[in-house]
Write a structure and sequence with these properties.
The chain is an alpha+beta fold. 21% of the residues lie in helices and 38% in strands. The chain folds into two domains: 9-46; 51-218. The protein contains three helices and 13 strands. A hairpin with a 4-residue loop joins strand 6 and strand 7.
Length: 219
């Protein structure tokens, strides 16, 4: 041993110095990855929920409701595919239906209530039961909504032709509503069936019948 003390090169051989450098880089890299993950989770959790709306393949029409009203039943699926700390609140729902024939009156639908169906095997018929007022719907990733919405139009008669429809869902997080367009076709034969049927009779209109052009809801 020299009088000046141990040789630094011998005290810290090249292998040890390389190990210390690699360890430092690994520790720094792990810290940066952890920071990036934390920032990502912070951004994801604090962003507004991304709400998706899907229309069903079936809508139900009650052309001869009580007191001359027309009821249209629509059951959308409202969901969020991403995890977020906040929830979305659907504050109101609108149904717009514009007839293609300008001679036909335009109905003024409003969200009257929500309900559910029950099936009677003996009569092979559906019946509808009211379950709730038109109250806000809370939507989160783990709580999708699939309400049966009853839209009511006073003093309107369904006429033949094509109708352009729009389901509009208003949400609390933004002033921009969610709009889902659809179309509906009513034939002259369907109108005759509507007129001949007893009051409170449901008619199913589907958009997935093979051979139906335009994928409109049709009877």
């Amino acid at each position: 041993m020299s009088p000046e003390g141990p040789d630094p090169a011998r005290a810290h051989p090249p292998e040890r110095r390389r190990f210390d450098a690699v360890h430092l880089w690994i520790t720094t890299g792990a810290s940066l990855i952890a920071l990036a993950v934390s920032l990502y989770n912070l951004v994801v959790l604090h962003r507004q929920p991304d709400v998706d709306v899907a229309l069903p393949h079936v809508v139900r029409l009650e052309p001869r409701g009580p007191e001359g009203n027309v009821h249209l039943f629509l059951q959308p699926t409202i969901s969020s595919r991403v995890r977020a700390e906040d929830v979305e609140i659907i504050t109101d729902a609108e149904l717009r239906l514009l007839p293609g024939d300008p001679k036909l009156a335009r109905p003024a639908f409003y969200w009257d209530e929500s309900g559910t169906y029950s099936y009677d095997h003996a009569s092979n018929r559906l019946s509808y039961q009211r379950t709730a007022d038109p109250t806000p719907l809370v939507v989160a990733q783990d709580s999708p909504q699939q309400p049966t919405l009853l839209f009511n139009a006073h003093a309107w008669t369904v006429g033949p032709g094509r109708y352009e429809g729009m389901l509009v869902l208003h949400r609390a997080s933004t002033g921009s509503p969610i709009e889902k367009p659809f179309c509906l076709t009513v034939s002259a034969a369907a109108v005759r069936a509507f007129t001949a049927a007893p009051e409170r009779t449901f008619f199913e209109l589907r958009d997935d019948v093979p051979g139906t052009p335009g994928a409109c809801y049709a009877f």
